[in-house]
Amino acid sequence: MIEGLLLLDENGRIQLANRAFAGLFDITTPVRGKNDPRGAPPDRTGANWFKASRRKKQLLGHEFRLAGLSERWLQINAAAISDGTAKRRGTILSSTI
User: Fold this and answer.
1) Residue 33 lies in a domain
2) Residue 67 lies in a domain
3) Structural domain harbouring 62
4) How many domains does the chain contain in total?
5) Quick check: bond before 30 cis, omega within 30?
């Protein structure tokens, strides 16, 4: 899978981060169980979309700049995962270059 994928539980803890996500954000340590992937997103703008994705039902087409030696732009999409009673059970985020 080329797209970075992040799955959060209902408390905002990371349950899954695929290799593409780890590669996009240069994550080298396990992030499962954490509330924020340390070092990713690396700046305030990134932290804002990460927090917004946990509050909103849907976040589509958010553009995010990764600064560094080779600047890159990502497109972030997020959607809430709900059960049959509309209770939020988590969030799924995807990112593409």
Assistant:
1) no
2) yes
3) 58-84
4) 1
5) no
